[in-house]
Design goal:
about 75% helix; mainly alpha
């Protein structure tokens, strides 16, 4: 249900913005493993709340708030470790390696949705889908303490150790987290961070959710995340090329803008030019249910655009993470502060996009135009950081 999704995601990202921004303090005080465990379990709670939402209308709000807290600490911890463990010449590849593993879960999830709902002609996923995902989420969260190494025991590939400074008192850590917004690098990248998850509302609820039937949405999801894996791997090689950092940054930014314009531009064009609804396209109030099999070859164009949207997402976010990693230069506290600011501001942007979707006064076509304009304009203040 798009309305349930919009309510849940608005609450989720509003809470995520606060939790993610303050997660640096939690990381410095508790370390990453408790954050992965608790944060991972909140995904299962959220899925259960969405499934039972028809029986109690407040469950999407409750689930969104719980996951917002958990996701904030989880992803800030993950981003921090990913950037800290890399060497100066392997940051692009390190980020790409994580992105491939991360999106492998998305591919598996999409294929599960595709298979479990292959004969589902309804609008929503069936009960087996929900409880399969819930079981996987719980197992994944419980595995974190068993599989993750203590950061203090990690040695980088160049032989250097990851050095963490002793945590201050809780009040001092929270104060330091709040003051990170004053860092010149963070200030120049605020708009870039804000736009980095804005397009998910348009991509998922709009482009995929309003244009395809259930099983094709699952297949599209797998293709979307698979495209991210390939794009991250190729882009990581560019970011680690044996060139001056400024040259790599300029080429990286050029590719970010190119993919944004190509993917979102084609998606907006598809809004009104799609074969859906007898050639009138798709939007709010006029959804479509294209099937990958029955509507072939017409369905091929929007499915290819969906792949480009996935690649664009990977290039944008990998570039943001690489910039933070380069700017922090291995300093643990600075890396954690940048990661927390990134996840907090990113989630604020995503929450604003879902709120626009919830209030319903703009169409998905207008949402797509706002998304493209914001993402491209956000690139301009970043250039002086090179």
């Amino acid at each position: 249900d798009p309305t349930v999704a919009a309510i849940a995601n608005t609450c989720l990202y509003a809470t995520f913005a606060v939790s993610g921004y303050l997660a640096g303090a939690a990381f410095n005080l508790l370390g990453p493993i408790p954050l992965f465990l608790v944060g991972g379990l909140t995904y299962a709670v959220y899925a259960a709340c969405i499934y039972f939402s028809p029986y109690w209308g407040l469950l999407p709000v409750v689930g969104g708030v719980i996951l917002g807290i958990g996701a904030g600490i989880f992803w800030a911890a993950q981003s921090s470790l990913m950037m800290l463990y890399a060497t100066p010449n392997s940051r692009g590849s390190f980020i790409a390696c994580f992105w491939i593993i991360f999106n492998l879960g998305g591919v598996a999830g999409g294929l599960l949705q595709f298979g479990l709902n292959y004969h589902n002609e309804g609008k929503g996923a069936n009960a087996v889908s929900y409880f399969t995902f819930i079981a996987i989420m719980i197992l994944g969260a419980l595995a974190a303490p068993c599989l993750l190494a203590q950061p203090s025991s990690v040695v980088r590939e160049d032989g250097t150790k990851v050095v963490f400074k002793c945590a201050e008192a809780p009040a001092e850590e929270i104060r330091a987290a709040l003051l990170s917004i004053g860092d010149p690098f963070v200030q120049r990248n605020l708009l870039f961070f804000l736009a980095s998850n804005w397009f998910y509302t348009y991509n998922f609820s709009g482009f995929n959710g309003h244009q395809f039937n259930m099983r094709t949405r699952g297949l599209n999801s797998a293709l979307f995340w698979g495209a991210q894996m390939l794009a991250a791997w190729l882009f990581g090689k560019l970011l680690d090329a044996r060139l001056p950092p400024v040259t790599r940054a300029r080429r990286g930014m050029g590719l970010v803008v190119y993919f944004l314009v190509a993917s979102l531009g084609l998606a907006i064009w598809n809004n009104s030019r799609s074969t859906c609804n007898h050639g009138h396209g798709w939007d709010k109030g006029m959804p479509c249910r294209l099937d990958y099999l029955h509507d072939f070859p017409e369905v091929g164009v929007p499915m290819v655009i969906n792949v480009l949207l996935g690649a664009s997402d990977a290039v944008y976010q990998n570039f943001a993470l690489w910039l933070m990693s380069m700017a922090a230069a291995g300093d643990a506290r600075k890396t954690v502060a940048y990661a927390a600011a990134y996840k907090g501001v990113q989630s604020l942007g995503a929450g604003c996009a879902w709120l626009l979707d919830l209030v319903g006064f703009i169409s998905y076509r207008q949402q797509g135009i706002i998304t493209l304009a914001l993402a491209v304009v956000a690139c301009l203040p970043v250039v002086p950081t090179f």
